[in-house]
Amino acid sequence: MTATVLIIGCGAIAHELVELQRRNQWKHIRIQCLPAALHNTPDQIPGMVRKALEKYSSSYAHIFLAYADCGTGGALDRVLEEYGVERLPGAHCYEFFSGSSLFGQLNDEEIGTFYLTDFLVRHFDRLVKKGLGLDRHPQLIESYFGNYRRVAYLAQSHKDELLTMARQQAEYLGLEFRLQYTGLEPLNLVLKTQSESWQS
Q1: Which of 19, 83, 93, 200 registers the highest number of CB atoms within 10 A of its CB?
Q2: What angle do helix axes 185-199 and 14-24 make, rounded to 10 degrees?
Q3: pLDDT value at position 194?
C-alpha cells in the first residue's frame, strides 16, 4: 500500500511513533524523523521543518508534524501556517506524552520540575551531561539546576533499567525524584484522531 500521509517527527520520539504505527497498522502513513539533536537547539527546528515541507509537500495528500512548539516561541507555528500543516498540541513533548491535564497537575504540584522521558533517560549523558558541559564542569549543575526541586520521569514504558537510570540521574542533579507512568495513550489518541480525519 502506498503511503498517502507523511508524519514528520522529532527524532526523540521516533521509537514511539513507529510503535504506534505498528499497533494501529497504519500502512497509509510514512514516518520521517528529523535529527533528535534538535531537542537541544530549538532555534533550528523551524528551518529544518521548512526544508522538509518544501521537499515532501507535493508528494503526500496530508502531512502532519509530530512536534509540539518545543521551545521555538511560536516560530514553528508560523512556518506551519504557510503550509497549512498541523502539529501535536502543547508546548513540548512532556505535555503531549502526559496529556495537558496531567502535565498541568504536575506543574502545579512543583513548578521547579525537570522532566525526563524514556529517550532523555537513555541519552542523558550525551544531551544533559555532555550537552551542558556538566561532565567537564560539574560546578555548573548548581547554575543550571539550582532553581529546580525535583525530576519527574514521564515513563512511556515499564522498564526497570530506565527507572534505575532515571533515579540515578535525579541523584546526580541533587533533586527529588517523581515517577509518572504515561504510556503512549495520550499521544496515540491525538494521532488516531488525526488518522481518522485523513481517511475521511
Answers
A1: 93
A2: 60
A3: 87
Among residues 73, 122, 75, 70, which one has the least CA distance to residue 97? 70
Of residues 169, 187, 190, the one with CA closest to residue 178: 169
CATH architecture of the region 5-91+185-199: 3-Layer(aba) Sandwich (3.40)
pLDDT score, position 197: 79
Is residue 1 predicted with pLDDT exceeding 80? no
Closest Cα partner for 65 from 178, 196, 190?
A: 190
The residue extents of the domains of the chain are: 5-91+185-199, 100-181
Separation CA 114–CA 175 (nearest Å): 9
Give the single-character DSSP code of 63. Answer: E
User: pLDDT per residue over 91-135, tens digit each?
Assistant: 999 999 999 999 999 999 999 999 999 999 999 999 999 989 999
Please report, as a single letter, which amino acid is at residue 59. Answer: S
- For residues 137 and 107, what is the distance between their CA atoms, to the nearest angstrom? 29
The pLDDT tens digits for 165-185 are: 999 999 999 999 999 999 999
Question: Please, are residues 150 and 110 in contact by the beta-carbon 8 Å criterion?
Answer: yes
Angle at 114 between CA 42 and CA 19, to 5 degrees: 70
